[in-house]
Write a structure and sequence with these properties.
20% helix, eight-stranded antiparallel β-sheet, alpha+beta
């Protein structure tokens, strides 16, 4: 009986390391935006027009290199007379979401910001203001920003 107990104990102890997993390979989202350029220059009037849309309206933003974003406005909100935010579900990029915002500064100038993201893509775009005052969406790797797994 003592030998049986020892063998059973050994088998149970040996079973734990073989059946458990210490680490799981991280999920790698698809890279559907890999064929797009690193920068997409966006004319300011296109951004301003998109921010004037109301919820339910169709929106089209034409960027550099002939790239076009099209979709339906999910929400359009203005808060405190200084902040306007519009969220667009893009049908042109596998239902990615574009969020644009306009903030009124103390000197009555405006600052624009935005992100183009999709939960299934490892890449996205962020709207940045260039030194010359123009705006462009710059590609970024979402895996570097979000550690959700």
């Amino acid at each position: 009986m003592k030998t049986f107990t020892l063998v059973l104990a050994f088998l149970l102890i040996a079973h734990v390391p073989f059946s458990s997993t210490a680490q799981v390979a991280p999920h790698q989202p698809s890279v559907a935006l890999k064929n797009l350029p690193l920068r997409l220059v966006t004319p300011l009037p296109q951004i301003q027009t998109a921010l004037l849309k109301v919820a339910g309206a169709n929106c089209k933003i034409e960027m550099s290199q002939g790239f076009v974003l099209e979709g339906k406005v999910l929400s359009a909100v203005t808060k405190f007379g200084k902040l306007s935010v519009v969220t667009i579900a893009l049908s042109s990029i596998d239902d990615a979401v574009l969020s644009l915002s306009k903030t009124k500064n103390d000197d009555n100038s405006y600052t624009y910001s935005g992100h183009l993201i999709n939960k299934d893509y490892s890449e996205g775009y962020r709207l940045k203001k260039n030194i010359d005052g123009t705006y462009a969406f710059e590609k970024l790797n979402m895996n570097d920003l979000v550690q959700d797994r």
